[in-house]
Design goal:
Elements: E1 2-6, E2 10-15, E3 18-30, E4 35-36, H1 44-47, E5 53-54, E6 57-69, E7 72-76, H2 91-97, E8 107-109, H3 115-118, E9 135-139, H4 143-147, E10 159-162, E11 172-176, E12 185-189, E13 193-195, H5 204-207, E14 212-213, H6 219-236, E15 239-241, E16 250-256, E17 259-264
Parallel strand pairs: 7-8, 8-9, 9-10, 13-15
Antiparallel strand pairs: 1-2, 2-3, 3-6, 4-14, 5-6, 6-7, 11-12, 12-13, 15-16, 16-17
Bound molecules: zinc ion (ZN).
The site of zinc ion has 6 residues, from helix 3.
């Protein structure tokens, strides 16, 4: 693995036959009570020590990842478009900064169907933001949720169900990681990098992986998926990449005492 190129909104990493480009959709903040203890209670001031905060709130970057292979480019998640917080919806700018554009994307796979992951599928004009993406792959469990969102109507004809073990593009394997949402999916790239969607919303969850997120559909199941995949990533030496990880959204995970630590990749690493 090596960081090939990096800019304000992107970071490109080479992984053998494929490369992965982190694309920033922008950054926002969320209320402090979004981080929750194992029983669902807010953490309180002391419990938030070590959290990534801005403006006395929780810092929440939003990211997508472009997996470039010999047979095309798979976009994992699409950002918030214009459907959520101000300052998001920068995916197009990130692609431009990385020297490409929406036309490069030949398929799309979603980690799940929440607003900050699906909304970028549709542009400000209401049309498909990635016209060359022939397939939009969504976990079977979330096909209905996708279909219930009228904003996504233009993308429905390209919808395809995604299951554990499927290979949405060259070198990419789908891995079930349920809990944050019923069909939440992670993607293992070249057996070396796990793009894990929303397993982690704040860096505090590496030191205290028992902590959940207010919008986890099932806190206990999300925790079980987080713990299992963190441990597997450490054991296998996988890099991890996440929609809400600190910059540049890709890093190494190491064991630290009873828990874990995150080390972002840097240029020259
Ligand atoms: Zn998210």
């Amino acid at each position: 693995m090596r960081v090939v190129r990096q800019g304000r909104l992107f970071c490109k990493v080479a992984l053998g036959a494929v490369s992965v480009v982190m694309l920033s959709d922008g950054e926002t903040v969320m209320p402090l009570d979004c981080l929750r203890g194992p029983e669902g209670a807010s953490l309180g001031e002391a419990g938030l020590a070590g959290a990534d905060m801005r403006e006395d709130k929780l810092h929440l970057p939003v990211r997508a990842f472009l997996v470039r292979g010999p047979e095309g480019s798979l976009l994992v998640d699409t950002g918030a478009g214009q459907a959520w917080h101000k300052g998001l919806g920068q995916l197009g700018a990130a692609l431009a900064e990385a020297g490409t554009g929406a036309q490069e994307v030949s398929a799309i796979a979603l980690t799940h169907t929440h607003v900050d992951h699906v909304s970028g599928l549709v542009g400000a004009d209401g049309g498909l933001a990635f016209p060359n993406a022939q397939q939009v792959l969504v976990a079977t469990e979330e096909i209905t949720a996708f279909g219930d969102n009228p904003r996504l109507n233009p993308a429905k004809v390209r919808l395809m169900p995604l299951e554990q073990g499927d290979g949405p593009s060259f070198g990419v394997t789908s891995i079930n990681a349920p809990g944050h949402s019923p069909g939440h999916m992670a993607f293992l790239v070249e057996g070396r990098m796990l793009i894990w969607g929303d397993l982690v919303h704040n860096v505090l969850q590496f030191a205290r992986p028992e902590i959940g997120w207010k919008y986890d559909d099932d806190l206990a199941l999300a925790r079980a998926s987080r713990l299992a995949l963190m441990e597997q990533a450490v054991e296998a030496g996988w890099l991890v990449a996440g929609a809400h990880l600190p910059g540049p959204g890709i890093g190494r995970i190491e064991r630290a005492g009873d828990a874990y630590a995150f080390h972002p990749v840097t240029r020259g690493y």
